[in-house]
Structure formats: C-alpha cells, structure tokens
C-alpha cells in the first residue's frame, strides 16, 4: 500500500467541501499540498478521482465509489484510536448507559463488569421523554441500547447487537385468553396496553394494533402491573415476561394466520463518534458488540455459536 491516511483525509475533505482550497483551509494546509496529495493518491490507486475540466473539481464515478471506502477507512481509524485512548486511561469514576430494552439480558455481563471495574459507578437510564440515541448524542450517556431505528444523528455510530422477540400476552382470566388463536378483530375489541419506553416498531401488517381503546404508560414495570391486573393485553419483549408466562400469571396469545409467529425487533448499540470512551466504557462496548444477549424466542435462548 503506497498511499497514506493523510492522503485519504485530504481527498475526503476535498470531496466534502467541493474544492481543494476549502479542504486546505479546513485541514490547516496549503492548497498546493492538498492538490499534490490527491494527485499522488490518484497515481497510487491508478484511478482518476476528480474531473478537473470544470472550474471546481467534481468527483468522477470512480471517485464517488472510492470516497465511500475512504470514509469507512477513516472511521475505522477513529474507532481504533478511541479504543486505544480508552484502554490507556484510568477507569472513569462513573459510566452512564441509556437503555430502551429489558435489563434482564444484561445482568450476566454487568456481573462481569462489577468484577472488572469494582470502583466504577454505573448509572442505567431508561429514558421516557427522549430516546437513548438523543442522550448519547447530547453526551448524557456514554452508550445506548435501543430498538433499531432509522435516521440516527450523524454524530452517532451504531451496530446491531441482537434481537428482541415480542409476545402478545394477557392475564389467564382475560376474555382474549379464552379464544386462542385470535383474529385481528378479536384484539381490536379489547384494550391494548403499551409503554413508551419499550420498542415501538411494528411489523408490516400492523392494522390489528389500531385498537378502539389504548392505555399508555411511561414505565415498563407499571405496564406489567396493569397487565397482571387484567386491564388489557400487550405486545412486549418475551424477555420481560418470561417468568410471568412460566408461572402462569400471564398467557401468550397466539394469532391466527397471517399474524402467527414472534415479531422481531433489532437492538442497536449506540456511541458517539467524537467522544472517546474511558477504559470501563470501552470494555463494556466491546463486550456488548460481541454478545448476542437479546436473542430469545418462544423456544428460549438460541444454542451457543
């Protein structure tokens, strides 16, 4: 490999700003330095990145493809530097994790965290008025765990770390429990309970969720109490109600075709691009990226890979 990261950085800045002079000002270099670096990069890659026949250099079709790869390389380098910075530091005194998913699957990992960083205070936030991604973007949380969503802020990086399987449930003496399997009309005639802190994604065929009566709460534990009290039915993560289902306190509602089966909702790990994590945050991030802690369907945990 003959080209350097500096050349890639100058190429990316020139592509983003639309001129070599603007890229030079952004990077604190001279225009001739940027022009020469990009020309050498073209020679090294044996491709033409910019069309210089116009007043302002424009990316060629090849240049647009190379730009995507160059941006990915630079982002990976930033990740590497952030990880190295985190590992070289003393553990931070406190770590905040924003969670919009059941906490139960995290407990084994948190036990390991306790052993590895006994002096670090851990704050778990379950946002109601805002999202986990907003807390991370604002710097109020180092990491976030939330249902997959489109359009994260540009300042965030993310990676899917597992899936949540949602189950329809109610109390055993609820009228719906006497009519398994159920149709969409059956569900629509009864009150639906939902929590704003739980996954909001709906499957493509979600018309049956448009119930005539809907009660909403902000806290998932309040939702469970209402469900156990027989105040309605709910669709919520299997992880959250597996004990109640096993004890017979709640029953699973089975939907007739074409609605049969579990819903699957991705769970993303979120972190800020430009905010280096400390030693404890880096450790937790890497463990979460390599753990499929949220997978569970009606058959239980998946077999070990």
Automatic annotation (TrEMBL):
Keyword Transcription (UniProt): yes
Superkingdom per UniProt: Bacteria
Pfam families documented for this protein: HTH_1, LysR_substrate
Keyword Transcription: yes
InterPro entries assigned to the protein according to its UniProt record, in alphabetical order: LysR_HTH_N, LysR_subst-bd, WH-like_DNA-bd_sf, WH_DNA-bd_sf
Family per record: Belongs to the LysR transcriptional regulatory family.
Residue span, HTH lysR-type domain: 1-60
Keywords recorded for this protein, A-Z: DNA-binding, Transcription, Transcription regulation
Protein name stated in the entry: LysR family transcriptional regulator
Stored PROSITE patterns: HTH_LYSR
């Amino acid at each position: 490999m003959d080209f350097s990261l500096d050349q890639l950085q100058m190429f990316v800045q020139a592509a983003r700003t639309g001129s070599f002079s603007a890229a030079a000002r952004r990077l604190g270099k001279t225009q001739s330095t940027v022009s020469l670096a990009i020309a050498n990069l073209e020679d090294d890659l044996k491709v033409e990145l910019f069309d210089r026949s116009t007043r302002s250099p424009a990316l060629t079709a090849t240049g647009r493809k190379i730009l995507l790869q160059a941006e990915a390389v630079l982002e990976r380098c930033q990740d590497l530097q952030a990880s190295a910075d985190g590992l070289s530091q003393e553990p931070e005194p406190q770590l905040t994790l924003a969670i919009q998913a059941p906490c139960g699957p995290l407990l084994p990992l948190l036990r390991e965290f306790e052993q590895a960083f006994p002096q670090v205070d851990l704050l778990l936030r379950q946002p109601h008025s805002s999202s986990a991604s907003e807390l991370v973007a604002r710097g109020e949380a180092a990491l976030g765990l939330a249902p997959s969503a489109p359009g994260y802020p540009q300042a965030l990086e993310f990676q899917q770390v597992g899936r949540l399987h949602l189950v329809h449930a109610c109390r055993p003496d609820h009228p719906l429990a006497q009519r398994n399997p159920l149709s969409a009309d059956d569900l629509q005639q009864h009150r639906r309970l939902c929590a704003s802190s739980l996954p909001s994604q709906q499957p493509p065929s979600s018309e049956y969720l448009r119930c005539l009566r809907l009660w909403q709460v902000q806290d998932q534990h309040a939702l469970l109490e209402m469900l156990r009290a027989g105040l309605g039915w709910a669709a919520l993560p299997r992880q959250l109600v597996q004990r109640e289902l096993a004890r017979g306190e709640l029953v699973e509602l089975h939907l007739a075709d074409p609605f049969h089966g579990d819903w699957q909702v991705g769970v993303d790990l979120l972190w800020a691009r430009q905010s280096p994590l400390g030693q404890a945050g880096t450790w937790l991030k890497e463990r979460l990226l390599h753990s499929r802690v949220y997978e569970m369907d009606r058959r239980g945990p998946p077999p070990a890979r």
